[in-house]
């Protein structure tokens, strides 16, 4: 059996002097268990409240990330469309430059 130390105030010790400690412990054990159970329940309620608050914060952050991601996808689509447009324009400009070069070469040869 393990050892247990109980520290009491002097007045409380004097009031308990001469009484059977085992009887006192057995009488008060249900009250202590009830108190501990109530304290544990309160602790768990506080913990649940904190976790629920953290969950709400995380849901808000997820919502912000979702908006950011959706905007990034839209921006990516716009940028890809602009890139494709610029490639086509660049291709057309190269063709024109090549045509102009050929015309200039014909003029210089003549």
UniProtKB/TrEMBL annotation:
Keywords: Coiled coil. Residues 22-110 form a coiled coil. It comes from the Archaea. This is Uncharacterized protein. It comes from Thermococcus guaymasensis DSM 11113.
């Amino acid at each position: 059996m393990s050892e247990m130390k109980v520290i009491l105030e002097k007045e409380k010790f004097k009031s308990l002097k001469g009484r059977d400690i085992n009887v006192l412990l057995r009488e008060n054990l249900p009250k202590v268990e009830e108190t501990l159970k109530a304290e544990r329940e309160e602790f768990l309620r506080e913990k649940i409240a904190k976790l629920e608050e953290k969950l709400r914060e995380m849901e808000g952050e997820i919502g912000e990330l979702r908006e950011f991601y959706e905007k990034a996808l839209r921006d990516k689509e716009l940028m890809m469309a602009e890139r494709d447009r610029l490639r086509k324009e660049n291709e057309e400009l190269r063709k024109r430059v090549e045509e102009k070069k050929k015309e200039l070469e014909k003029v210089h040869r003549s």
